[in-house]
Write a structure and sequence with these properties.
heterodimer; A: 342 residues; alpha/beta; TIM Barrel; eight-stranded parallel beta sheet; globular; B: 283 residues; mainly alpha; 2 domains; 0% strand; elongated; binds zinc ion; Molybdate metabolism regulator (chain B); EboA_dom (chain B); hydrolase activity, acting on ester bonds (chain A)
């Protein structure tokens, strides 16, 4: 698949700043450290983040900021994959290594599995990927088929989008839709009408990367509307707050979509702090940063709220309990604020 | 045709499942490999994670497979291994292809079940590279599945791989007493690696689990006497106990003499109050 030149230079994976305007991140003038206290006691669920591109520092900061669970949708890791094995390894890392790594920091990791829209344009490979998808979508902790949908809105993208909707229906799994950067409004409408045409219940479909232009229609048709807080793009968290003020909390959820682009794994806690500051009631904040994501994806039957609700974050330094309960701790936490590295 | 051990699992499964769970387990056609593979993947959708807790800690589930035990497994893991047990009737090539596919696409808990099943699968040499690779895994649960309470490494690992397994278990601060056949496979090369490990740890100001020393006893020479002297000076009681055990078990005069200079535990060791297994339980 050939990328356009603009993609190669700027190339954020979820959003593109087509007009090349110099957007300043809306939260730059507020110091995060001053706002941390506002969200003490909140629990957050990030239903869209690509931890494969993030470091363990991120996990530590996320855990400290109250993020207790994440969903990692299968997507494009920047470098196009050249063979089926790369897909297998990638999917396996989502259900294996990445899930283990997050558990070391007390964060519950789920994923959605799918063939992403960009790579649907490589038909030979797409065919092969479709064959192995059933082996993955039934796995423990796979909470949906995703992220699928449109990028360039080509015929091949539509073909594999439809095939995967059928797969989701058969497996009784929610669907996570990636909406295109270019021609977003039309792409979003098209994604929704195709989903309905395939008989999917809109309450089983999460439409991602919404903005002011798309939100009303998505909600009116009964879908979940997810919003990505991603710096230097059209959706900053100040405007997110306005959307919540206007549309309320029903079926709205916030995510970071943090990945290999300039992005922020703390987008949810930061947005929550901003909402607290703007006087939005705590139960509304809780819905859009935690409960709605669980409500939507728990339809998979794969989310045990008790796994992250009641337990205290796991301490990797903790030893075996007696001789029976085996823990996997190998990456102990350490005090990053100390000058000494012990 | 290789024997299927699956019949040994069934009474346990029956005991630990609900009515709907056993109904699902019964419903899977055991002569259909693809159905078994899908059931292997889907198991958590139909089964709880009830922990199999039996009083027979030391008893082997399968009489001619010493060391193979399922205690503390959860129901999903037990059922998965049970499913795999039915695949052994396939031809060698078919069986390998099915198992390899499951390995290649496995998530964390599936990997645990796959490595747990190795002792009941035929053609152990085929799985050996996977098993030694699992020892290199950074995923603790996967490492545990091959290293702890699993007779496969004891039976099949060449010495180098076996020593790596023991070293990594110590390095990861996991209880070595859970390695099946630990004592039987002590060896000179392992002890050489362990002595340098001890020195490295000590010079970094770190500790070494006291029960590690049991692996060194037959191989300690006069040259290492100073290490045991150092051990006696430790502030940790378990280190002093380990030093006492070494001296009471060593055949060298110098060690026996050193032991008499530190009589604190000698009598109790003679009375059988202390042995190496007692040192492992602090974890
Ligand atoms: Zn994404």
């Amino acid at each position: 698949m050939c990328e356009k030149k603009s993609d190669l230079t700027t190339n954020p994976s979820h959003f593109e700043n087509q007009n090349k305007t110099k957007d300043t991140p809306t939260h730059m003038d507020l110091q995060w450290n001053d706002y941390k206290d506002k969200i003490k006691g909140f629990k957050f669920f990030d239903p869209h983040i690509h931890m494969v591109s993030r470091t363990t520092d991120d996990y530590q900061n996320m855990a400290q900021a109250g993020i207790v669970a994440v969903i990692e949708p299968a997507f494009w890791v920047g470098q196009p994959r050249t063979g089926l094995s790369s897909f297998k390894d990638y999917y396996s890392s989502l259900v294996g290594w990445e899930r283990f790594r997050s558990s070391q920091f007390g964060i519950k990791h789920y994923c959605t599995i799918g063939l992403n829209s960009r790579e649907a344009n490589n038909e030979r490979l797409a065919e092969e990927v479709m064959e192995i998808l059933p082996l993955y979508i039934y796995k423990e902790g796979v909470v949906g088929v995703g992220e699928i949908g449109f990028d360039d809105q080509t015929e091949l993208e539509e073909k594999y989008y439809r095939l995967q909707l059928e797969l989701a229906k058969e497996a009784k799994l929610p669907v996570q839709i990636h909406t295109p950067h270019r021609d977003k409004k039309r792409g979003t409408e098209r994604s929704m009408s195709i989903a309905i045409e395939h008989g999917l219940d809109p309450s089983w479909v999460i439409v991602d990367h919404n903005n002011e232009e798309t939100v009303k229609s998505v909600l009116d048709q009964g879908f979940y509307a997810a919003f990505t807080i991603y710096p230097f793009t059209k959706m900053g968290n100040k405007r997110m707050v306005s959307i919540v003020e206007q549309y309320g909390a029903e079926r709205i959820m916030i995510n970071s979509s943090a990945d290999w682009g300039i992005s922020d794994p703390l987008a949810i806690p930061k947005t929550a702090a901003l909402m607290v500051n703007r006087g939005i009631p705590h139960d509304v904040i809780r819905k859009v940063t935690y409960e709605n994501a669980i409500e939507a994806f728990a339809k998979s039957g794969q989310i045990q709220v008790s796994d992250f609700e009641s337990s205290t974050p796991s301490d990797p330094n903790e030893k075996f309990h007696g001789n029976s309960v085996l823990r996997g701790g190998q990456l102990p936490k350490w005090n990053q604020n100390s000058l000494y590295i012990d | 045709m290789p024997t299927s051990y699956s019949s040994y699992f069934y009474p346990l499964l029956k005991k630990h499942t609900t009515e709907s769970e056993i109904k699902w387990l019964d419903s899977i056609p055991k002569d259909n490999p693809n159905a078994l593979m899908t059931a292997f993947v889907k198991a958590p959708r139909f089964l709880s994670k009830t922990i199999i807790q039996e009083d027979v800690e030391d008893q082997n589930l399968i009489p001619n497979l010493p060391g193979f035990q399922v205690n503390h497994w959860n129901l999903v893991r037990l059922s998965r291994v049970w499913f795999l047990g039915f695949l052994v009737t396939l031809s060698k090539d078919e069986l390998i292809e099915k198992i390899e596919t499951l390995f290649d696409t496995a998530e964390l808990n599936e990997l645990v079940a796959l490595f747990s099943s190795l002792p009941i699968l035929p053609y152990p040499q085929v799985w050996l590279p996977r098993a030694t690779d699992a020892v290199r895994s950074n995923m603790g649960f996967v490492f545990d599945a091959i290293a702890l309470h699993n007779p496969f490494p004891y039976q099949e690992f060449p010495e180098l791989a076996w020593n790596q397994l023991v070293l990594k278990t110590i390095f990861n601060e996991k209880p070595i007493q859970m390695i099946y056949g630990l004592s039987e496979r002590k060896n000179q090369n392992l002890s050489i690696s362990l002595i340098s490990f001890v020195k490295e740890r000590w010079s970094a100001g770190r500790e070494v689990p006291a029960n590690v020393w049991q692996l060194l006893v037959p191989y300690l020479s006069e040259g290492e006497l100073y290490l045991v002297e150092t051990l006696f000076k430790s502030r940790r009681e378990e280190d002093v106990l380990a030093a006492s055990l070494i001296c009471s078990q060593s055949e060298l005069n110098s060690y026996q003499l050193l032991g008499t200079k530190h009589p604190k535990f000698l009598e109790e060791i003679k009375n059988g109050k202390w042995d190496w297994s007692k040192l492992g339980n602090n974890h």
